[in-house]
């Protein structure tokens, strides 16, 4: 199976380094992506928006030229959903790591503090306590070292969706800073942030309690959860 891994904000392909070895050992072809504007700390980021990141994932799907599994962490969930909308017949499953699909017209996060055309990694006190569970000092220092400013447009551009075939693509939500029970409660309550999940025909929920970055705090368990979803 070909598995395309899409990182969240401030991260490049190397952020999956702790996750990919078990996937490769299981015989899968793994494609961790570095998205436009995240190539280096000094890469140009002006003019890069959500569409450019979705297009990069679509290009990776097309390059494989056979059905794939998409994995998106955090904001990567919105990006893989946009790519699934573009290529619904080429995605066997979408796996959302502490994330979910972003609906039509919604934005990923337009409240993060920006500097010009980019969003640097904010101070830790910007994040909720649930985000930071298990993120010890060593992991935080490594995160700061590797963090690359995020192109502003990716966070603030509205999602545009065109193909309801995306609803037929099975989804797995790996729940880290929230539980499956909490997620179902939000869906039942009509929370707009999770409304898109209610339209997907087949969704499963996997509990992996930790903070918002399980690829750093529980990489082996995250690999196992992805493998289990791929095998289904």
TrEMBL record:
<keyword id="KW-0378">Hydrolase</keyword>
<dbReference type="InterPro" id="IPR000073">
    <property type="entry name" value="AB_hydrolase_1"/>
</dbReference>
<dbReference type="GO" id="GO:0016787">
    <property type="term" value="F:hydrolase activity"/>
</dbReference>
<dbReference type="Pfam" id="PF12697">
    <property type="entry name" value="Abhydrolase_6"/>
</dbReference>
<dbReference type="InterPro" id="IPR052897">
    <property type="entry name" value="Sec-Metab_Biosynth_Hydrolase"/>
</dbReference>
<protein>
    <submittedName>
        <fullName>Alpha/beta fold hydrolase</fullName>
    </submittedName>
</protein>
<dbReference type="InterPro" id="IPR029058">
    <property type="entry name" value="AB_hydrolase_fold"/>
</dbReference>
<feature type="domain" description="AB hydrolase-1">
    <location>
        <begin position="3"/>
        <end position="224"/>
    </location>
</feature>
